[in-house]
Amino acid sequence: MGRLVALSLLGIGLALLGERFLALRNRLKASREVESVDLPNCHLIKGIEAGAEDIDVLPNGLAFFSVGLKFPGLHSFAPDKPGGILMMDLKEEKPRALELRVSWGFDLASFNPHGISTFIDGDDTVYLFVVNHPEFKNTVEIFKFEEEENSLLHLKTIKHELLPSVNDIVAVGPAHFYATNDHYFSDPFLKYLETYLNLRWANVVYYSPDEVKLVAEGFDSANGINISPDKKYVYVADILAHEIHVLEKQPNMNLTQLKGLKYPGMPNFAPDKPGRIFLMDLNEQNPKAQALEISDGFDKESLNPHGISTFIDKDNTVYLYVVNHPHMGSTVEIFKFEEQQRSLVHLKTIKHELLKRYVYVADVTAKNIHIMEKHDNWDLTQVKVIHLGTLVDNLTIDPATGDILAGCHPNPMKLLNYNPEDPPGSEVLRIQDVLSDKPRVNTLYANNGSVLQASTVASVYHGIMLIGTVFHKALYCEL
C-alpha cells in the first residue's frame, strides 16, 4: 500500500512537472519562426558590438544607449568588457555613437547597465537613470548629463529591498522613478523556480527620497516600462505573458486597476459590477439563487470574491470565509451567516504579508499588453490589456504620436540556447490608438537573426528609428 501511494505521488509530481515544462515552452514561443519585414534604409551602428539593451532619446535628438549588458544565462560577445553608456546626436548628417565619460569615483569596472531613462528638470538639467547589475546585483544609478563635456556626473547609487531584480525604469522626477522587478526573488535558483511555476510575483515599485512602495503586482515577468506623453498612463510590458499593461497613475503614485479585467488575465462580462454572495436552498422543489445582504460597514462596492469556505461551530453558528481581491489586493473576509434574515454579518478582515502575494491563475498562452492610467497621487489604475503574439521587452513612446514602440523577442528559446548557426530573431511592433477599443498593431521591422539578433528596444526621432539588442548589434534606420 505504501509503495502504491509513493508511486501515485511520484506520477502526479512528474505529470505536474511535465505540464509546467510544456507551459513554459508555450510562454517562450519555442516553435515560432519570424518572417522578415525589411526596411530599405538601414545600417548597423559602428561601435556597438555587444548589445544596446535600452535606448532613450531626448527631445533635442540626443540618443543614449546602454551597452554591454551581461545577464545570467544569456550569450555575450564581450564577456570580459564592462558596460557603458553611448550617445548619438541624431541631428547630425552622419551620426556616430560616442562613449560618454563617467566621473571619478564611480566603479566602471563592474558597470553592467540594463534599462535606462532620462528626466529633464525645470532648469533644463538632464538626469540619466540607469539600472545597473554590478556583479549581478541590483542598483539604480543616477547621473547628471554634462552636454558640453560629453560626460556623466555620478550623483547617487540606490539599493532597496523592494528592488531585488530590477529590469527597467522610467524617471518621473530628479530622484523619482517607477521600476520593474522581473522576478520577486534575487537568488538565481529561486528566480528559475518562480518562472517555471508561473507564480506571477513580479511587480512595479515607485521610488522617491521620501517613500518607496509597491504599486502594481501580479505580473509573470515585468520588463519594459514607460509613460505616456501626457504623464497620465504608465505602460508595463509583461514579457512571458505576451502582454502590455496600461496603468492609470493615482495621486499617491500607486498603480491600481480601474476597470477592465477584474481578475488579471481573465475575461469578465460585468467589469464595473461588484461581486456578490448567493445562496440556493437545494431542499426546495424549484431552487432559486438569492443574493445575500451584507451588513453595513463592509465595503460592498469593492467586493471581488474568489474562493469560499464554511465552518459550523458547536453552537451551530455558520461562518463564511471569503477570499477577496478588493482593488486587486488580497484579503480574507469572515462573515457570520444569519439564516432567518438571509444575510451576512461581517466580522473581520484579515490582511497579512504572506497573503499579499496571492497567486493569480491566468491563461499562459495569453498574448497581450496591459494599459494603466496614471493619477496625480502616482497610483496606477489598469485601463486595458493589449494582446500580442510575441514576447515584449522594452517600450518607448513616439513623442509625435503617442504610439508605443515595442522591442520584441519572437523566439526566445533561441535566445536562451544560443546557436550562431540558428540565432534568435528580432521584431519591432508599433501600437497605435492605444486607448481605443481596437488598438492597431503593426510590424515595423522583423529579422530572423541574419542581420540583427535578439532585439530589445526601438526608439524613433523625426523619421529615424534606432533598434537595440540584448547582446548583439544596433540598427539605424531611416523611415
Topology:
Elements: H1 2-27, E1 42-44, E2 52-57, E3 62-67, E4 84-89, E5 98-99, E6 101-102, E7 113-120, E8 126-132, E9 139-146, E10 151-158, E11 166-173, E12 176-181, H2 188-196, E13 202-207, E14 212-219, E15 222-227, E16 233-238, E17 243-248, E18 278-279, E19 290-291, E20 293-294, E21 305-312, E22 318-324, E23 331-338, E24 343-350, E25 368-374, E26 380-387, E27 391-397, E28 404-409, H3 412-416, E29 426-432, E30 440-447, E31 455-461, E32 464-469, E33 475-478
Parallel strand pairs: 6-10, 17-25, 20-24
Antiparallel strand pairs: 1-33, 2-3, 3-4, 4-5, 7-8, 8-9, 9-10, 11-12, 12-13, 13-14, 15-16, 16-17, 16-25, 18-19, 21-22, 22-23, 23-24, 25-26, 27-28, 28-29, 29-30, 31-32, 32-33
Keywords:
479 residues; 5-stranded mixed β-sheet; 3 helices; elongated
Please explain how this structure is put together.
Ca(2+) 2 binds at residue 54. Keywords: Calcium, Disulfide bond, Glycoprotein, Hydrolase, Membrane, Metal-binding, Signal. One of its GO terms (biological process) is response to toxic substance. The chain is elongated. Helices cover 8% and strands 42% of the residues. Mean pLDDT is 85; it is low at 257-269 and 354-367. With 479 residues, it is mostly beta strands. The protein has helices spanning 2-27, 188-196, 412-416, and strands at residues 42-44, 52-57, 62-67, 84-89, 98-99, 101-102, 113-120, 126-132, 139-146, 151-158, 166-173, 176-181, 202-207, 212-219, 222-227, 233-238, 243-248, 278-279, 290-291, 293-294, 305-312, 318-324, 331-338, 343-350, 368-374, 380-387, 391-397, 404-409, 426-432, 440-447, 455-461, 464-469, 475-478. The longest helix is centred in the first third of the chain and has 26 residues, at 2-27.
